[in-house]
Specification:
By secondary structure, this protein is of the alpha+beta class. The chain has two domains: 1-45; 48-120, Roll (SH3 type barrels). The chain has three helices and five strands, in the order αβββββαα. The chain has helices spanning 2-45, 97-120, 124-139; strands at residues 52-55, 60-67, 72-77, 80-85, 89-94. Strands 4-3-2-1-5 form a five-stranded antiparallel beta sheet, with helices on one face. The chain is rod-shaped, with a radius of gyration of 33 Å. It holds the Pfam family YajC. The chain crosses the membrane at residues 12-30. Belongs to the YajC family.
Length: 140
C-alpha cells in the first residue's frame, strides 16, 4: 500500500508542476504581449493627419490620409504617396503640429483668463489711493 500512496503523490506533484508552469507562462509571455497589443491599438486609434510615423519596414513618412473603413493609411514620403495597411505603422515619432497647437492653446488659455480676471478686479485700497491722488491734483 505504501507503494501506491507514493505513486499517487508523485502524480499529484507532477500535475501541480504543470499547472504552475502554465500559470508562469501566462504571466511571463501572454499577458505582456496583450498589454503591448492594446498599447499599439491605442496608438493607431490616436493617429491624425500630419503625424510623423515609422512603418514596420522602417519607412519614415507623414500621414496624409487615414481610412478607418478600409484600415489603410496614406503616407507622404518626400512627395511620394504610399498606401499601407494601418497595422503596418510601427510607431509615431512626432505628433502633428495641429494636435500640439490645440493642446498647447488649451493649456495657455486657462492661465490667460485667470490673469485678465485678476487685473480687471480692483481692490478697495487701490480705489481709495486713486481718489486721494485726484483730490491732491485738484487742490494744486
Amino acid at each position: 500500500m505504501n507503494v501506491l500512496a507514493s505513486s499517487n503523490a508523485g502524480s499529484y506533484s507532477s500535475m501541480l508542476l504543470i499547472v504552475v508552469m502554465i500559470v508562469a507562462m501566462y504571466f511571463l509571455m501572454i499577458r505582456p504581449q496583450r498589454k503591448q497589443q492594446k498599447k499599439h491599438q491605442d496608438t493607431l486609434n490616436q493617429l491624425k493627419k500630419g503625424d510623423h510615423v515609422v512603418t514596420i519596414g522602417r519607412l519614415h513618412g507623414v500621414i496624409d490620409e487615414i481610412n478607418m473603413e478600409a484600415k489603410t493609411v496614406t503616407l507622404d514620403c518626400d512627395g511620394i504617396y504610399l498606401v499601407f495597411d494601418l497595422n503596418a505603422i510601427a510607431s509615431v515619432t512626432q505628433r502633428s503640429a495641429a494636435s500640439e497647437v490645440t493642446s498647447a492653446a488649451a493649456t495657455e488659455q486657462k492661465p490667460a483668463e485667470e490673469k485678465t480676471a485678476e487685473t480687471t478686479e480692483e481692490t478697495p485700497s487701490d480705489a481709495a489711493t486713486d481718489d486721494s491722488s485726484d483730490d491732491t491734483k485738484a487742490d494744486k
